[in-house]
């Protein structure tokens, strides 16, 4: 009887049957395959892309959307949606820039303030959705406009100035590796851990997969959902800080296109917008696909308009594939 | 009553949904080391009782006692802590999570804050799965498992949670043959291990195979509770049936000779036997059978909602294609679905709009809806069908269940010409008694105007009172046809419960076609 569990004790249970492993991770594998393809294509077709510097810069360029996509992932996998991430990042960046005003001494206060914004917005979103029972789409859509309004009231023009000690994150390296990418590496590992290895993460999947089943299993559904909105908004605020290391000033226009890009990355990464399906690894893959697609188009000089067209086609093709898989 | 020995007991449970009484003072207890079967017809209140005993729903009054102590309120978490586990018909597992994750869902073992004790959980889950002989990979996602394996995972979850009482909600409705036998073996072993089992079913043969004691629920009341030994199948059936239905005047019209709808070798699924039937004009053909016997599937096939895999359908002798609801409507077939909220009504629209939708062609000129005509038609529907309140501008969801059903019926029946074939799937489910009789009257009117009616219903008294002929379905097949004067609740139940194949393995040798004297009363 116990023999059949032998593979499990090797602690790499997923590899017990490789075809099963492929099936189970098909959604994230697809994004990564696409990324590998894109990467190979870019380095073959474009001379500039063969320079390691360009590749590193491209990776750095994906970090901002990567963070907002990870933030969105937590809400979406739990069966919700947060449309306010872009405006949270915007406001967070503006406030941080204004507080820093180029002085290193203010960095800590600025970080606290912007994460505080995330915390407050996430709490309000979570309350609206779980206590006032407003649909997530409507609640966070309202929040999007409120925050955007606050941002424009605050300042119509870019304001503040990032402190040198702060934007150093973007440019400095440790043993040849950019600090930014190191930080992001840690960030993604933590996200993966939270999603897959903690009770909160498992409850979130359960919630998105079947809310009633989760409730009957004793999951405190409202609390878990609330947590996902807070986590999402805090990460989105952190993404606003990250963007500041690159742009130096807090712009009120930052978030305008961010929302769609973020959701695109999440969808390409194989996360079901109905919840319960998808993985952090997949979202990272989706982010990289999107980031490298842009660079690829630039390097082979494709018109910006075609970029959007091709992005749209990729999304539709992937959704078609995911849907096929659901049927079988 | 052995309340003091009972692992879990329900005491005087009442539960109402809207105007409908689901449970009216039900008491029941599950003892250590016994398999207690809870039986009853569809809608007798079995599932509601299960939900209350597992804390998923709260009773209006009455209490649940665990080892003699009243627990109030009983929540799902509380029930689980106290050792009450449940295996639902549709297993309440999360498809996207693995077996291991589901077994410990809501119950994750932690080492320190945030860190899960994967090793401990894995070992415990393996032990539980081993114990019941479940051959499932612990890292498989639930979505990859069969229904039987999912039920085993649910049992394993209950064992891991150290459940002392396990409630099975009609596993036989979703399992069959070998799979069911496996679950039975597991259940018997759990009894040996000293657990108390509450087994819900409407298949009587199982009860004789499995249970020590049985409680019969009818219309939300306990009508019998006794040991299975010494009980005969006939006793059990007699206690389940016998509801009163108010005497109604017989219809004046008789079924005509011509066949309005003929179904030949209709395949409803790959593993289903083909179905054939004939429906005459001015006839009400009742279709009885238990939940899951394939009745609604038949209705959906005839309405083009879920087209059949193969087979021929003749309308007035000419073959018709029923590939879409539109095709069915064009063929003169109106289906009034069971799930009226999802399939029968646009809840956000007014009564007028809903009625108008079914007769768009009649109320519009070159694509423009004639408001006056729509108003006239819907006012007529409200008047004829007694929809209350009599306001055509009322939004559908604000109406009571019975009145919603009247709108659904009304929108089809008010059409001119009236649909030649009307298929009614559970027309009186969730409807209060008064509205029920009005719906019966509508059916009579329909027949008098020449329509043929296929009446699918779980309420045997209704089928008997309304039908000219009754077909009994079981496991996706038509297992018997009873003519007027031949049918009684007991005969129908015998056919529905025993079906074709399981007739021989029942305790007292009753088979579908071979009823003992005294039970074939006409």
Task: Summarize the structure in words.
- The complex is a heterodimer of chains A (328) and B (522).
- Chain A has 328 residues and is mainly alpha-helical.
- Chain A has one domain: ABC transporter involved in vitamin B12 uptake, BtuC (Orthogonal Bundle), CATH 1.10.3470.
- Chain A is built from 16 helices and two strands.
- Chain A has a two-stranded antiparallel sheet with strand order 1-2.
- In chain A, helix 10 packs across helix 11 (199-209).
- Mean pLDDT of chain A is 86; it is low at 1-16.
- Chain B is an alpha/beta fold and 522 residues long.
- Chain B folds into two domains: 3-240, P-loop containing nucleotide triphosphate hydrolases (Rossmann fold), CATH 3.40.50; 259-347 and 401-505, Rossmann fold (3-Layer(aba) Sandwich), CATH 3.40.50.
- Chain B is built from 18 helices and 22 strands.
- Chain B has helices at residues 46-53, 76-81, 99-103, 118-131, 147-160, 177-192, 204-210, 233-240, 295-302, 325-330, 340-344, 351-358, 360-363, 371-384, 401-413, 433-448, 460-466, 489-498; strands at residues 6-17, 20-31, 35-39, 61-66, 69-71, 84-87, 165-169, 196-201, 213-218, 221-227, 259-267, 275-280, 284-289, 310-315, 318-319, 333-336, 364-365, 368-369, 421-425, 452-456, 469-474, 477-483.
- In chain B, strands 6-7-8-3-9-10 form a six-stranded mixed beta sheet, sandwiched between helices. A six-stranded mixed beta sheet of chain B has the order 16-19-20-13-21-22, with helices on both faces.
- In chain B, helix 12 (351-358) packs across helix 14.
- The longest helix of chain B is centred in the middle third of the chain and has 16 residues, at 177-192.
- The interface between A and B is medium-sized, with 32 and 36 residues.
């Amino acid at each position: 009887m116990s023999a059949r569990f032998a593979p499990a004790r090797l602690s790499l249970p997923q590899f017990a049957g490789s075809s099963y492993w492929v099936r189970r991770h098909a959604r994230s594998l697809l994004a990564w395959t696409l990324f590998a393809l894109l990467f190979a294509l870019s380095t073959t077709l474009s001379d500039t892309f063969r320079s390691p510097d360009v590749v590193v810069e491209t990776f750095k360029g994906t970090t901002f959307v990567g963070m907002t996509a990870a933030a969105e992932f937590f809400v979406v996998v739990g069966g919700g949606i947060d449309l306010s991430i872009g405006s949270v990042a915007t406001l967070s960046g503006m406030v941080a820039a204004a507080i820093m005003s180029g002085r290193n001494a203010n960095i800590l206060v600025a970080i606290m303030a912007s994460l505080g914004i995330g915390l407050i917005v996430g709490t309000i979103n979570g309350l609206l959705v779980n206590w006032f029972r407003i649909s997530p789409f409507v609640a966070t859509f309202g929040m999007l406009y409120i925050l955007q309004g606050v941002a424009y009231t605050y300042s119509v023009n870019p304001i503040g100035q990032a402190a040198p000690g702060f934007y150093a994150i973007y440019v400095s390296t440790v043993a040849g590796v950019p600090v930014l990418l190191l930080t992001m590496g840690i960030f993604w590992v933590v996200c993966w851990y939270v999603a897959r290895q903690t009770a909160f993460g498992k409850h979130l999947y359960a919630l998105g997969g079947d809310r009633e089943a989760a409730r009957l299993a004793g999951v405190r559904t409202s609390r878990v959902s609330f947590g996902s909105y807070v986590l999402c908004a805090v990460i989105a605020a952190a993404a606003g800080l990250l963007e500041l290391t690159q742009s130096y000033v807090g712009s009120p226009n930052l978030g305008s296109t961010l929302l769609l890009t973020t959701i695109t990355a999440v969808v390409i990464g194989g996360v079901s917008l109905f919840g319960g399906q998808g993985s952090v690894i997949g979202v990272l893959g989706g982010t990289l696909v999107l980031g490298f697609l842009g660079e690829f188009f630039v390097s082979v000089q494709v018109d910006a308009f075609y970029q959007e067209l091709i992005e749209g086609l990729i999304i539709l093709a992937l959704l078609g594939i995911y849907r096929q898989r659901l049927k079988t | 009553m052995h309340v003091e020995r009972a692992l879990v007991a329900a005491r005087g449970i009442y539960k109402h949904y809207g105007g409908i009484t689901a449970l009216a003072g039900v008491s029941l207890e599950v003892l250590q080391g016994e398999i207690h079967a809870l039986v009853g017809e569809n809608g007798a209140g079995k599932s509601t009782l299960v939900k209350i005993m597992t804390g998923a729903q709260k009773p209006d009054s009455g209490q649940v006692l665990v080892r003699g102590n009243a627990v109030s309120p009983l929540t799902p978490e509380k029930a689980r802590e106290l050792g009450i586990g449940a295996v639902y018909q549709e297993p309440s597992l999360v498809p996207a999570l693995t077996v291991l994750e589901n077994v410990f869902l809501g119950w994750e073992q932690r080492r320190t804050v945030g860190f899960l004790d994967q090793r401990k959980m894995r070992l415990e889950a393996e032990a539980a799965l081993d114990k019941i002989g479940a051959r499932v990979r612990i890292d498989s996602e639930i979505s990859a498992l069969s229904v039987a394996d999912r039920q085993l995972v649910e049992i394993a979850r209950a064992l891991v949670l150290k459940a002392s009482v396990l409630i099975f909600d009609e596993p036989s409705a979703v399992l069959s043959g070998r799979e069911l036998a496996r679950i039975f073996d597991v259940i018997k072993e759990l009894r040996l291990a000293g657990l108390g089992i509450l087994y819900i079913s409407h298949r009587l043969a199982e009860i004789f195979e499995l249970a020590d004691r049985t409680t019969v629920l009818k219309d939300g009341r306990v009508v019998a509770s006794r040991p299975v030994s010494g009980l005969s199948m006939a006793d059990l059936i007699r206690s389940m049936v016998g509801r009163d239905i108010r005497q109604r005047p017989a219809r004046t019209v008789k079924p005509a000779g011509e066949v309005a709808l003929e179904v030949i070798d209709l395949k409803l699924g790959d593993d289903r036997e083909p179905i054939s039937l004939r429906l005459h004009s001015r006839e009400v053909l009742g279709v009885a059978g238990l939940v899951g016997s394939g009745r609604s599937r038949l209705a959906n096939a005839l309405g083009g909602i879920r087209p059949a895999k193969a087979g021929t359908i003749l309308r007035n002798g000419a073959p018709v294609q029923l590939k879409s609801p539109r095709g069915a409507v064009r063929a003169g077939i109106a289906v009034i679905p069971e799930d009226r909220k999802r399939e029968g009504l646009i809840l956000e629209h007014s009564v007028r709009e809903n009625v108008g939708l079914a007769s768009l062609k009649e109320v519009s000129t070159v694509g423009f809806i004639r408001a006056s005509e729509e108003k006239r038609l819907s006012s007529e529907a409200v008047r004829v069908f007694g929809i209350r309140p009599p306001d055509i501008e009322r939004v559908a969801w604000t109406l009571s269940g019975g009145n919603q059903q009247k709108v659904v019926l009304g929108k089809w029946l008010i059409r001119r010409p009236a649909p030649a074939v009307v298929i009614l799937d559970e027309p009186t489910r969730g409807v209060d008694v008064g509205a029920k009789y009005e719906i019966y009257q509508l059916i009579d009117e329909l027949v008098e105007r020449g329509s043929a009616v296929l009446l699918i219903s779980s309420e045997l008294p209704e089928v008997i009172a309304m039908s000219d002929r009754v077909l009994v379905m079981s496991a996706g097949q038509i297992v018997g046809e009873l003519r007027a004067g031949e049918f009684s609740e007991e005969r129908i139940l015998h056919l529905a419960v025993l079906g074709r194949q399981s007739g021989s393995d029942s305790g007292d040798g009753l088979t579908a076609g071979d009823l003992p004297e005294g039970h074939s009363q006409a």
